[in-house]
């Protein structure tokens, strides 16, 4: 009964989900509120279009609401939620052939796949180019890069989200980065040899 005295903010995710399954009318909305920002980030960075991302997030929340009773508990609730978001994004790509091209104005979105430019006025153009380049990748490669390079997931956690072996995530990321490199090469070269923080050679070692 100790959990009954907890504030709602202290209730673990899995207990909130269980409460929802057992009929608590407030538990699911609290769970979504707790994870909404990162769920939105996954949808937005995968699709690139705010309207499509909002629709995918709405679809994902409805799917999670209905599927809660089938949650097996073998992964974190946040992993389960992000898996549903990724699947909702894939469904929208399949149905509408969504091609992300809208910049998000967030340096963290493209730090891992494009060089950080020293001139802040270039950020908008870099973001636009990165999302245009991401749109040319197969969805599976794009989603893997979003999770690992942009959201900071470990390879193992991204594998859980996408329900594939870790080696598959590594392969998709490697292939995606290789395909992005020539598409974004002009950003590496446009400032000359000292284009990234004054480092000669055009890039920060990775």
Structure description:
There is one protein chain. This protein has helices at 13-21, 27-47, 50-67, 77-96, 107-110, 123-134, 139-150, 155-162, 166-183, 185-189. The chain has 206 residues and is mainly alpha-helical. It folds into two domains: 8-98, Rna Polymerase Sigma Factor, Chain: A (Orthogonal Bundle); 105-190, Arc Repressor Mutant, subunit A (Orthogonal Bundle), CATH 1.10.10.10. The longest helix is centred in the first third of the chain and has 21 residues, at 27-47. The protein starts with 12 loop residues before the first helix and ends in a 17-residue tail after the last helix. The model is unreliable at 1-5, 98-122 and 191-206 (pLDDT under 50).
Q: What is the element layout, followed by pairings?
A:
Layout (H helix, E strand, L loop, with lengths): L12 H9 L5 H21 L2 H18 L9 H20 L10 H4 L12 H12 L4 H12 L4 H8 L3 H18 L1 H5 L17
